[in-house]
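Hi U.,

Before I forget, here's the chain from the pilot set. I'm dumping it here mostly so it's searchable later in email.
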Amino acid sequence: MNPKRLLTVAGLLSMGVAAFHVVLSFSADLSQYYGAPPDVVQMLRDHDPLVYFLMLFMIAVFALFGLYGLSGGGRFRRLPLLRTGLLSISAIYTLRGLALFPEVLGRFGLIEYSVPPQEIVSSLVSLIIGLLYITGTIPLMRIRRIRTGAGR
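Structure:
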């Protein structure tokens, strides 16, 4: 698949994650179901302004990830530090997604590790997005290096 298309899909998925966090910020029960820490859930129930600041920060981070993916996909102008940003975002999502392996092993009773199914889904989504970022970024870095003559 085309690297720019992979980054566009990754960017759109990151925007989806940001939108999902918008939804979570309106429901303490939904946030609790998807693994928010008990303190955060209580802050949502109490309508503590700090929790909305924290949620807004998370939404902005995932939206920024999305913008970098879309920029890498050529959907709009090149953002500053694009290569570094894409590599960092790839690492963040992929490292988060690697939690999938012990979660699945625990689910099948192969190791002592228990998590709810929604944690497994979250890890799988993170891993998929991370792999999209990586597989979209690395070929673009090679193409750019060849075009500019760098690395010779």
